[in-house]
Predict the structure.
Amino acid sequence: MFGCHLGRLFGVTVAGGSYQEGLSAIIQGVPSGTTFTEQEIYGDLLLRKPGADELSSPRKEPDLPVIYTGLNSADTIENAGNKNRTNGTPVTILIPNLDRHFVHIKQYQDTNRTPRPGHASYASFSKYGPDDDAIGAGIFSGRYTSAIVAAGYIAKKILSNCGIKVFSFVREMAGVTCPEIDYTEAYRMTEAYKNMRCDYDPFYQEIYVKNRITMEMRFLEKMRIFSQIENEIDAIREKAPVMNQKEIMDNYEIHPVLNCPDIDAAQSMVDAVNKISSTGDSAGGVVEVVAQGVPAGLGEPVFYKLDAELGKMLGIGAVKGVEIGAGFKVKDMTGYESNDRMHSENGKVIFESNNAGGITGGLATGQNIVVRLAVKPTPTIDKKQNTIDKYTLENKELAAITRRDPTIVARIWPVAENYTALVLLDHLVAHYGYQMLRNKM
């Protein structure tokens, strides 16, 4: 496959599949001396993993990461204090598949002759032939996004050290839209939601808080623990604290299921999705990503425009549209309405609107970068659909018997957040380098 790499100066290559041994992310360009832990990375991975709430597939993958390369295994000299710091070599993160039992594989084997409408099943068979990784859709499954989240967490942490913060939330789902909200409040609520999920996630508590896996362990030691965890998944899940909705809203001031910065809208979204799901169908929606603190001038012209690079988030499974700022609404505006007029205050440029979403000419303006992703309904549904036998081309009928998500929207936002961080950091490295050279002329 030629399409599994993103970035030029800070880049990530992903590999693996839904029912292979696992997935991996190889990240190049991580500065030496950077620190991060598997516990930190898992704090983001648990936000997109399945089986966490009523809006996700019942698959029980823990999505536990293992940092395999890129860190010093010991202090480089005695008492240097640089054990587990990055050393400039590529960082490899492995995410083993632990919930891939034969009963689920058999379900795919029984239905793989008949491509699932809305999936890549037919197209990938046409490209790769009968050896196509069709168990669980392989690299075309949403599971590959876990590798993006893992790599994007590292990018996000580096960006934070540079004064740039990236966050995301659900803007719309099942036809219900979140009202406009101040981004400072949206960021606060998103961070509170992440904290809540860590506090209530049984694997976070059992594996990391109790130190069953630590950064001091060698790889093979961790694999021994992983082998145990594979047989304890149900037992660990049973330890999950009961999510009392009122208690969560009182303590965290967020909705307990959905990362939407308006609690009433979030509940209406959940109710709407559950109503649709009860009929065997699924729902779509919109995810919004915001980046704050991005320096003006970040980006490149023509083929590497910053907004064009962010448009590559169409590569996230189920995303069918990406808009920047006002997006498609500009078609109904006049030039005067669309233009973001500016003035100077105390030596600073102040924009009077942000219809451009913080990017003009492919370069950042210094405003908030605002990106929205249109997410289609989950294609695996419990309704009869016309399809074909991909070997004989006979007409067939298909109904889902595999595990499915009522909506993917609630799991896409952490992917979009971390994908955006990957794009921004790749451009930031180039930006810093260019500006340093320019200042020496």
Observations:
- Residues 66 and 293 are 31 Å apart (CA to CA).
